[in-house]
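Q: My labmate handed me this sequence with no annotations at all. I'd like to see what the chain might look like in three dimensions before we decide whether it's worth expressing. Could you predict it?
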Amino acid sequence: MFKIDLHCHTKATKTDEPMSRNVTKTTFLSTLEDAEVKIAAITNHNEFDIFQFIEFEEYCRDKVYIIPGVELDIKGDEGENGHVLLLCDPANKSDLNSQLQIYTNGIAADYVSLSTEQLLKLYQHLDKAIIIAHYMKSKELSQKTLDHISNIIPAYLFFKEPSSFKSLGILLGHGYRGIIGSDVQDWSKYPSEKIPQLKLEIDNYNQLILLSKKDCNVVDTLLNKKTSKTISVALPNGEIDTVKVYSDVNIVFGGKATGKSIYINGIGDGFISSGYKVEKYNPDKADENMNNYLKVDFTKNYINKFEGINDLSFSVFSGFADQQPTLITSYYNFLLHISDNTNRQKIRANFMLDLVEADSSIYVQLYNTYSKIKEFYDFFSINSFNNYITKQEHTTMITIIGKIKTASFTESKISYINFWSCKLVNNYIRSIKNATSQCTLTTQRPGHCGLRMFWLTRYKIFLTIFNIEKTMSLKSKEDFLPVGYLGSDKSLYTKTQFRFLCSKSEKEEYPRTLTKLIQIKSKMETVKKQIFSTDFPTQINELAELSIAVPNYVSVSSFIGVKKDFTLNKRDTYIPSSGESKMFMLMDCLNKTADVYVLDEPEKSMSSNFVIHDIFPLIQKIISSNKFVIMATHSANLAVLLLPYVSIYKKRDAMNGNYLSYLGNPFLDNMTNIKDAIDTVKYKETCMTELEGGRDAFLERGETYNVI
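A: Here is what I predict for the chain of 708 residues:
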């Protein structure tokens, strides 16, 4: 950042001035450096202290460039009392001192007052001095006096100092030279926010003069301090433009249908092909891009949003068949032939009933619990956690966890032994019975009546459905993700709602057919009610068929509906307007990390207040990092007040339909046709015509607003 303050006071020379204007050279330098001021002028009231100036100049050398000057009381042509600043080349500081003594020698600063003629006479003794007059503020001179001064001195040496940045911006943007300084009252409260940023990094007083004069060679030399890139751009008619853009603001402006959007996107594509990271903003795609924030990835499984829930597949319902009870005839046949073979009676296994087997999942669950405890025990044993607990506490913890681990292992081992013991005994009994029956050709004794297995088979289905329905009754979950801001008091979030199928569910919450899911849920309720019915297997098979009919099959997670909405400050659902969508997507683009930012009419649907106070600072932050901003605009605020390094005026030839491109910048009033150096247009006139509706319209608005 390169700031300039041409209105500094270092001494309270008048009796009504605050003593806080008095400043030491060390405070002077440190204050300016903190504010990033690179050029400053010392302009005390009606006095130039050459000894102080030399002291400050020497102390600030190579850090802040100091310009000698004075703020003079002037008696204007209409008898008004006004103030002007008179600045000169530091090389001429002795001349300033000696000439000023002629009018102020022996006179207290409170009583010094020069006429307009005396001011101009003093000016003529100083080579290329600059005069800055108060304008639209206290102590301003009459228009007659200002006209008198401007008729004598060159326009590029006469500036006006308004009271606000708003007025300054308008003056700068339309050819009215202006500057604004701190007019510092208290050096402990230096108004750094009021100090303007000089567009080009200049090194001395002469460059300041040449910049004001807009000497082409000096401007080109200063532009070369910025990174540049030469891009070839294809025009709609097939021709190619070759244009150099800089790591700063580069503006493309012109009338409708002149190819501005194609032009800036062509520049952006040129950067992309060279390996630059480019971010683009298009207001016509803002609503679409905004809606992308509300897209749900239905390929993801969201079961983890609900803690402790297993994503059970509905494949458990496929191929269901009742476990048939043992027929009475089996017992009858066994008893009928029980005494047919005496050898069979000697083997007791032929008469034993099956043992009741435990569920294998019980010991599996117990062993999994043991494995987790062991994993934690091993981790805790090899880490001391000295920052959190003492060595004794660590030892105690290991002992306690070790006991839990041992008990858990013992429990899982007992369960494992019990399960396999029963299973092996039952296998032994069945094997003996089968072998005996085959050898004796007699009926074996049934191992069980089958009613328990008949019930357990159905009960498992009932329990599965019961647990699924219990899961589906869980309360919905919400995730909030910050998206950005729609103004200082509007924090925009996306609210993602996760809820199981219910009466309030909406079709867009499900990637599958909502109607099918409703049918499946209803069928589960029917199956649960039919547990004692002979129709139970039929209902189960219908449930399985419905589940298969849904793409990718059905599981518990299939019933989780997902919906995204925008919300303000995590409260009620909010639907951004089209203008707010553009506002947000523009801010989103500018806040992303990139090398190049391509902005197509960023002002579209935006208030001027938002552009000035929200967009300007972001763009200035970007270009301060040596990034490229390529912008097509119809806004004078953006095209002029940003003081772009490059301005490209797009025009379509009414005679032959050719697309013309004129290249220039705010420091050179001529804009030159890229393909014809003889063909030029005036920068200011073109800006006022295309962006303001003409000079008369601009001046009329200025009078209406009472700023010009």
